[in-house]
Amino acid sequence: xxxxxxxxxxxxxxxxxxxxxxxxxxxxxxxxxxxxxxxxxxxxxxxxxxxxxxxxxxxxxxxxxxxxxxxxxxxxxxxxxxxxxxxxxxxxxxxxxxxxxxxxxxxxxxxxxxxxxxxxxxxxxxxxxxxxxxxxxxxxxxxxxxxxxxxxxxxxxxxxxxxxxxxxxxxxxxxxxxxxxxxxxxxxxxxxxxxxxxxxxxxxxxxxxxxxxxxxxxxxxxxxxxxxxxxxxxxxxxxxxxxxxxxxxxxxxxxxxxxxxxxxxxxxxxxxxxxxxxxxxxxxxxxxxxxxxxxxxxxxxxxxxxxxxxxxxxxxxxxxxxxxxxxxxxxxxxxxxxxxxxxxxxxxxxxxxxxxxxxxxxxxxxxxxxxxxxxxxxxxxxxxxxxxxxxxxxxxxxxxxxxxxxxxxxxxxxxxxxxxxxxxxxxxxxxxxxxxxxxxxxxxxxxxxxxxxxxxxxxxxxxxxxxxxxxxxxxxxxxxxxxxxxxxxxxxxxxxxxxxxxxxxxxxxxxxxxxxxxxxxxxxxxxxxxxxxxxxxxxxxxxxxxxxxxxxxxxxxxxxxxxxxxxxxxxxxxxxxxxxxxxxxxxx
Length: 588
Known about the structure:
The chain is mainly beta. Helix content is about 10%, strand content about 35%. The chain is globular. Mean pLDDT is about 85; it is low at about 10-20, about 55-70 and about 380-405.
């Protein structure tokens, strides 16, 4: 039997981590009897399951006894993220290729979906058994991919002859796509080298590369992980006690959880977020070299919580002389009073001379982290008096929100005497000069047309919009997940027309308090074939909502699938499936 390979498919759209990378890693650990022809894998944006969390520390909610998937820095995908995957999984067969059987095939597919809750927060499953991996793995991710930490764990736990890693300045897209921040590299040529070496036995030099190739202020090469020329450097945080009581809307400038290259996917200037946080700065000397970081920044904090628990979010920022603040890494943790260690997500970054390294600490980070309700807080819908906003925004202490008591739940005070920043500082290494990639090569585009839609209601929708209702005290974040390369209407060369609309909304009411937090996702996909006789139409609509209720967090998902053939008495809409799932999760 000819030897085969398993290739990861990073999803190009829908702003969600895809299963392809996970599938490749699981395949790499299959026994020779289960996959005798498997010779190598390429895993892009994969997840090894070793950073699953228990509880509800992230926007993925909680499960108490169940471990759920999470990403770099301890953040989990939004509870409504499954709406995109559900819409794609419910797509109908195309009658041009499936013929008259399309309806029966679709009904069977939907029946499989109907058996469970496909949009519920996914269990993390069994972590990858590193000692079971038997074929070489090329692990690739971008610094803006929430699953990038997997690459470093694979390098640390797999023997050198079974792994190579690449971490570059990319979002959740293939490295040759050229999405910001870039630069793009010749990923297709790199994978061809990998396949030719492991499948054909050709001498391509694929295994002569450093164990890790990463981007900081250029390409770097490291032959071990962790490398000996990465030194932990500790910086003490200076100042007096710093109260942290951030407004509940702190975090709206976090960017998309899984950025895919959209204009507003990456975090913007962090000065507004910094003003709502307790900030500690470390100067990079103007006359010295850059401070180059590779790995996981770690922040140690001495916390005195206002209540039984505090929800702590840390951001590491690069502050330029003009005040511009660029997000470098972040992490989150929840706990009682005491000393907490926040391990930020992996990063590769160089702080230039004359800049400042900023540690910004907040007690809120919505919608990436569910706000912490006060002990004994009333259920949503209870009448609560609204109080005015209190406090001022300082460079040291975070400002309180307009919560009725004037002090939002989850607040705390930092004692800088017990706080420190530990950076993995990298020195130049012998492999650096030899590391590089060819330019990207791609096949000619498919020829997808994007018709001009005059007067389309969503034609002018911004990709990411923050709305403040001053009268109600409500903040709302609206994201258009279809604002990428193709837009929402596409015409394919074979005659298929696809209309797609996706709006994600995250809302919180400063006056009503933490229990007002709500997230909602709406996905609509419509397929049309005017070239068939009679014309064919099909539609999938998914609506997902998550928020607090009397028992904790409630996640509700609704799926509606309709098919239409022709017009007149013999045609019309037919509902093939209308199903609603509800899942209750413990209150964080």
